[in-house]
């Protein structure tokens, strides 16, 4: 992680909008440096919200918004933030953004607000957000920070969506609230019915799915923890 | 780089003020919309006790509010079944605005009990169901609901339950239509006319269709189910005086209970 902070070089020629380095800012956290599967951060919300696809999607969008905006704000302020109180400043910015998201959800998507409000509040404590602020936004220019925040949030999002997909399918027999199991049963006739797995609905199910995803990913990439 | 204390304090003050303004501004801006969302949600829950979830889902927010205005009249009663119109300060009481959570903290005799009367369109006298509000504690946090009684003031026409933090997939299932439908047709008075609440049983998958006061339980959510049972028992008991009052007055009064 810290390699990225050390990498900043002042360049005379302006860099392309999506240069190779900048593309890496987004693509790295998707697989090779995924916040959940590699850094194992943000696990709590990954376990809690992923029982169904729809709230998970709202959560993912919220995290993307918060991370991008927080990275942008902190990066804009990076030269003025007193280093002794920087953590509190980060916290204040993140907490304000999270409150904003919560208020907007309450106004425009009340059903989602009811379901998610606790977890949206917990974005504040999501280690990914503070981690990226501390490790990247404090030492990099705004545009790069936005890309970095977007990449990390995207890495988080696709994992929780993948977990939610399997949990909703196996636990409730549906995807995005659309009954899949009922459809399968109707194809094969009344006698044929698929049982849903209650374990998948509880956080234990998320652990199992997450563990499997990490296993598959590490087998493919050959990543080993040092 | 070490900054001076003065710089740090100034920076913190400015940051606090800016963020404070931003948040209070948003809250001011979104406040009215949020209030509407909360109101709509409450009305949806009240209607949910008498309508199918699919019917409500088919309606747009405006239609729901319009439908509610046309078909529901509300009032507030006390534990003796007497209607309360003014609060202690002499202000009008609106049933929709009664904060059930706040009332729950008071002694049962002091609570205000909202009643919602579902009536035929355009005719307030022609009641179809009486909806009462219930509230209590689940496993993790508060649970609440609305229960609709038929005009015999005995048979349950429907219920809606809500919860704040019950376990998804276990206790949270009280919000599912399939679970709520189990209450339909159950009775709150037994054959000898005494009050007997409806209770969820332990375990799930049994057939209680012949039993007037028993409902199939929630597997893995016994504590939430117990909470629901206690909630129904507490509140239906409190509304009992009101029910009996209407019943004891001549039967035509039931229609005219507005």
From TrEMBL, chain A:
Stored InterPro entries: NqrD, NqrDE/RnfAE
GO molecular function, one term: oxidoreductase activity, acting on NAD(P)H, quinone or similar compound as acceptor
UniProt keyword list: Cell inner membrane, Cell membrane, Ion transport, Membrane, NAD, Sodium, Sodium transport, Translocase, Transmembrane, Transmembrane helix, Transport, Ubiquinone
EC number: 7.2.1.1
Any GO BP annotation: sodium ion transport
Chain ranges passing through the membrane: 57-77, 89-110, 116-133, 194-216
Localization terms from the record: Cell membrane; Endomembrane system
Catalytic reaction equation(s): a ubiquinone + n Na(+)(in) + NADH + H(+) = a ubiquinol + n Na(+)(out) + NAD(+)
Keyword Translocase: yes
Membrane topology: Multi-pass membrane protein
HAMAP family xrefs: NqrD (MF_00428)
Function: NQR complex catalyzes the reduction of ubiquinone-1 to ubiquinol by two successive reactions, coupled with the transport of Na(+) ions from the cytoplasm to the periplasm. NqrA to NqrE are probably involved in the second step, the conversion of ubisemiquinone to ubiquinol.
Assembly, per entry: Composed of six subunits; NqrA, NqrB, NqrC, NqrD, NqrE and NqrF.
Similarity comment: Belongs to the NqrDE/RnfAE family.
NCBIfam families: nqrD, PRK09292.1, PRK12405.1
Protein's UniProt name: Na(+)-translocating NADH-quinone reductase subunit D
Organism of provenance: Belliella pelovolcani
TrEMBL record, chain B:
Transmembrane intervals: 6-26
Gene Ontology MF: a single term: oxidoreductase activity, acting on NAD(P)H, quinone or similar compound as acceptor
Keyword list, A-Z: Cell inner membrane, Cell membrane, Flavoprotein, FMN, Ion transport, Membrane, NAD, Phosphoprotein, Sodium, Sodium transport, Translocase, Transmembrane, Transmembrane helix, Transport, Ubiquinone
Catalysis performed (reactions): a ubiquinone + n Na(+)(in) + NADH + H(+) = a ubiquinol + n Na(+)(out) + NAD(+)
EC number, UniProt record: 7.2.1.1
Modified residues (FMN phosphoryl threonine): 222
Record keyword Transport present: yes
InterPro entries reported in the protein's UniProt record: FMN-bd, NqrC
EC class: translocase
Subcellular compartments: Cell membrane
GO annotation, biological process: sodium ion transport
Domain FMN-binding: 138-239
Gene Ontology CC annotations of this record: plasma membrane
Entry membrane topology: Single-pass membrane protein
Domain of life the protein comes from: Bacteria
Needed co-factor(s): FMN
Cited function: NQR complex catalyzes the reduction of ubiquinone-1 to ubiquinol by two successive reactions, coupled with the transport of Na(+) ions from the cytoplasm to the periplasm. NqrA to NqrE are probably involved in the second step, the conversion of ubisemiquinone to ubiquinol.
NCBIfam families associated with the record: nqrC
Family: Belongs to the NqrC family.
Subunit structure: Composed of six subunits; NqrA, NqrB, NqrC, NqrD, NqrE and NqrF.
Name this polypeptide is given: Na(+)-translocating NADH-quinone reductase subunit C
Provenance organism: Belliella pelovolcani
């Amino acid at each position: 992680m810290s390699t990225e902070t050390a990498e900043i070089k002042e360049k005379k020629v302006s860099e392309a909008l999506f240069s190779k380095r900048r593309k890496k800012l987004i693509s790295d956290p998707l697989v090779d440096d995924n916040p959940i599967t590699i850094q194992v951060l943000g696990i709590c919300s990954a376990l809690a919200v992923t029982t169904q696809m729809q709230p998970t999607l709202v959560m993912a969008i919220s995290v993307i918004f918060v991370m991008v905006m927080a990275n942008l704000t902190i990066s804009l302020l990076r030269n003025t933030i007193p280093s002794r109180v920087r953590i509190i400043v980060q916290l204040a910015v993140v907490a304000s953004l999270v409150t904003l998201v919560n208020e907007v959800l309450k106004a425009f998507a009340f059903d989602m607000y009811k379901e998610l409000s606790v977890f949206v509040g917990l974005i504040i404590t999501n280690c990914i957000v503070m981690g990226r602020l501390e490790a990247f936004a404090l030492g990099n220019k705004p545009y790069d920070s936005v890309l970095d925040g977007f990449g990390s949030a995207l890495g988080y999002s696709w994992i929780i969506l993948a977990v939610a997909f399997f949990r909703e399918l196996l636990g409730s027999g549906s995807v995005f609230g659309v009954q899949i199991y009922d459809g399968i049963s109707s194809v094969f006739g009344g006698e044929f019915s698929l049982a849903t797995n209650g374990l998948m609905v509880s956080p234990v199910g998320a652990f199992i799915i997450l563990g499997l995803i990490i296993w598959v990913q590490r087998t493919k990439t050959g990543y080993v923890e040092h | 780089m070490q900054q001076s204390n003065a710089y740090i304090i100034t920076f913190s003050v400015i940051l606090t003020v800016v963020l404070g303004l931003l948040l209070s501004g948003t809250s001011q801006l979104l406040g009215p919309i949020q209030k509407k969302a909360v109101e709509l949600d409450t009305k949806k829950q009240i209607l949910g006790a008498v309508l199918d979830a699919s019917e409500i889902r088919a309606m747009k927010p405006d239609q729901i509010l319009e439908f509610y205005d046309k078909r529901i009249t509300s009032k507030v009663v006390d534990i003796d079944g007497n209607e309360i119109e003014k609060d202690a300060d002499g202000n009008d009481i609106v049933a929709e605005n009664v904060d059930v959570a706040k009332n729950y903290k008071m002694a049962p005799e002091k609570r205000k009990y909202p009643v919602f009367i579902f009536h035929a369109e355009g005719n307030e006298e022609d009641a179809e169901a009486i909806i009462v509000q219930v509230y209590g504690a689940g496993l993790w946090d508060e649970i609440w609901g609305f229960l609709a009684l038929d005009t015999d003031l005995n048979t349950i026409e429907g219920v809606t339950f809500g919860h704040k933090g019950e376990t998804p997939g276990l206790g949270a299932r009280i919000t599912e239509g399939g679970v709520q439908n189990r209450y339909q047709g159950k009775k709150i008075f037994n054959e000898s006319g005494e009050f007997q609440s409806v209770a969820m049983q332990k375990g799930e998958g049994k057939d209680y269709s012949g039993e007037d006061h028993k409902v199939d339980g929630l597997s893995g959510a016994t504590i939430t189910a117990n909470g629901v049972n206690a909630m129904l028992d507490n509140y239906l008991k409190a509304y009992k005086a009101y029910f009996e009052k209407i019943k004891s007055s001549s039967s035509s009064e039931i229609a005219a209970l507005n």
